[in-house]
Amino acid sequence: MNSSMEPKQPLSEYQANLEALVQLPLFAGLPLEPLKLLAYLCKRETYQPGEIIFHEYEVDPNAYYLIEGRAVLITDGNGEVEYTEFGERDFLGGMSLFCHLKRLLSLKAQTRVVCLVLSREKFQKVLERFPEISQRMIQAIFLSILAWEERLLREHVADCDQCRRRIGVSLV
């Protein structure tokens, strides 16, 4: 039988993790060896609708890549207020891999959510083994901040006086 006619085998969890990481701007362009180690160290977690993935004001050492489902950022104070919705292929918490950061909002599963989770502890071990990748990753974070600010300028600042006075985060 021709190999193109053979049914495709499902990816192993490790292979699926590796494919997911390669798609993320934070990890894109990294050499294969550190990516393989990161893919091995990631774990998958499943959350049910209504379950909190991380809590407002907690220091959460994890980064989350949503593989399946939808989640929404909420504030828990004085009644629940919804903010931004996230779905498949969204990545949250990348900066927490580098330092201790308090979450400003909670993330609540709207549907069944499957996340690829990477902890700061495991990530730091990869950086110790491959210190040359840190500069590239920090650059990716700053480029994402710049892209966020450009979108804010394009889509919102012209209509919001208060936002205009706060723009310039990429100049920090």
Percentage of residues in strands? 15-25%
Largest sheet: 4 strands, antiparallel
Structural class: alpha+beta
Report the C-alpha radius of gyration, rounded. Answer: 18 Å
Spatial strand order of the main sheet: 1-8-3-6
N to C succession of SSEs: HHEEEEEEEEHHH
Whole-number mean pLDDT:
88
Low-confidence stretches: none
* Secondary structure tally, helices: 5
Alpha-carbon distance between the two ends: 60 Å
Number of strands: 8
Give an account of the 3D structure.
By secondary structure, the protein is of the alpha+beta class. The protein contains 5 helices and 8 strands, in the order H-H-E-E-E-E-E-E-E-E-H-H-H. The N and C termini lie far apart (60 Å). Helix 1 (13-23) crosses helix 2 (32-41) and helix 2 (32-41) packs antiparallel against helix 3 (120-129). Strand 4 and strand 5 form a beta hairpin. The mean pLDDT is 88.
